[in-house]
Amino acid sequence: MTPLLEVRDLSVLYRGRGRRKDKVALEDVSLNLSEGETLGLVGESGSGKSTLGNCVLGLVQPARGTITFDGRDITGASRSQRRALSSQIQAVFQDPYSSFNPHRTIEQSVSETLTNLPSMSGAEKRARVVAMLERVGMDQSALAKFPAQFSGGQRQRIAIARALLPEPRLVVCDESVSALDLSVQAQILNLLLELQRERGVAYLFITHDLSVVRHMSTRIAVLQQGRLVEEGEAGTVTEQPTQPYTRRLIAASLTADADVQEDRRRARRAMARLALNETDDRIRLGDDLLLAMERQAVTETLAQPDPRATTLTVALSRAEAKGGLDSLIELRDALLELTPRTSEGMTPAAMQTHLQEARTRRCAAWSARGQSGVFVRRMRDLAAAIDAGDDAGARAMVSALDEPAEREVGSDGAGPASHTLGTRS
Ligand SMILES: Nc1ncnc2c1ncn2[C@@H]1O[C@H](COP(=O)(O)OP(=O)(O)OP(=O)(O)O)[C@@H](O)[C@H]1O
Ligand SMILES: [Mg+2]
Prior knowledge:
- By secondary structure, this protein is of the alpha/beta class.
- The protein contains 18 helices and 10 strands.
- It has 2 domains: 5-249, 3-Layer(aba) Sandwich (Rossmann fold), CATH 3.40.50.300; 258-420, Four Helix Bundle (Hemerythrin (Met), subunit A), CATH 1.20.120.
- The strands form 2 sheets. A 6-stranded mixed β-sheet has the order 6-7-8-3-9-10, sandwiched between helices. The protein has a 4-stranded antiparallel β-sheet with strand order 2-1-4-5, covered by helices on one side.
- α12 (282-302) runs antiparallel to α17 (391-399).
- The longest helix has 21 residues, at 282-302.
- The radius of gyration is 25 Å and the shape is elongated.
- It starts with a strand and ends in a 5-residue tail after the last helix.
- The structure holds adenosine-5'-triphosphate (ATP) and magnesium ion.
- The site of adenosine-5'-triphosphate has 12 residues, from β2 and α1.
- Residues 14, 23, 25, 43, 45-51, 208 line the site of adenosine-5'-triphosphate.
């Protein structure tokens, strides 16, 4: 059987502009997707997942390789050919808000995908839009409203309705649920699965959340720095991965713990906000990211079978010996490194700088207030809570790590703690 979608030896090069260097985003990637199936595409941030999806959608032109849809080479499809294809290949992106025109009503936006279908009367169109909206759980009153009047989950339902309206055979889902709360995510994923069963549509399902992809996919492909490192049956890839990279990705991503999930999502959202924000508020967003990632590190440690605050404990003894701002910085780094998930490599390189800046800023603030000792003591209490298995205590402590400490004793100027960085007296 010929696959519905066949990607052969695809390479993509983004040309650098100004001082930016050329970037090879994909290199010799080959993949197949059959009718009615889901191919999950996973990999760290920057591994080339969206680039591949965008090539399939005709939004990015590859340097080499071919894309075949239903036996037809669509690699260099012209604009009009693409328009014709658009009823067969649709997309649902992460943030439906940016993919909807805020000034158009839901009816106008949703019915857009029907424009390339053979002459259909206005009444027929409206009936189809209404039926589709109902299918995704939205009622007719949505038609005259604007995107801003809906929640993120509702907008994603509407985006799915818009994508499925022309009865496409392939939908590229690029991080379609990543911005949603956990409970809403589950509803949207199930909706996508139901629609697939009803209509036999195939999904190219892009995500960095392996727990999501396993739930959705028939097959899974793993990208690392633009190369395909693993591809196979969803169960096999997630349960018996052959590549160390896949194993690391799985160790980092699979979790049954709702707290871990929630904290990962919080951290990811902080990253997304920071990535989107070009000018103002970078300091606040950087601080948010640091706090979210520290919290995530603690939650993930607590979720381990035998959680121990080892890296933190080692850093604590070193901090006591060393003193000064550097030792505070070392402690904060140790906190982030509690679990492999948050260590370097799993955090996008572009975010490292923000994290480091926020970390230094926060440590300098403690130091400037003369309260280094308070900070060190809080770290020590946190390490003790982790070692004692006091989950609730540890979570509360990491959340309150940077709260002002006016009334707390142990300020640097208030006794023996001043010289030895908060040794308990
Ligand atoms: N328009 C562009 N110009 C230059 N470089 C780009 C462009 N789009 C993406 N890149 C680079 O290509 C690489 C792959 O990016 P891509 O967006 O495909 O990754 P991704 O796997 O989707 O990441 P994420 O999980 O963060 O969405 C990255 O290094 C990215 O910085
Ligand atoms: Mg992407």
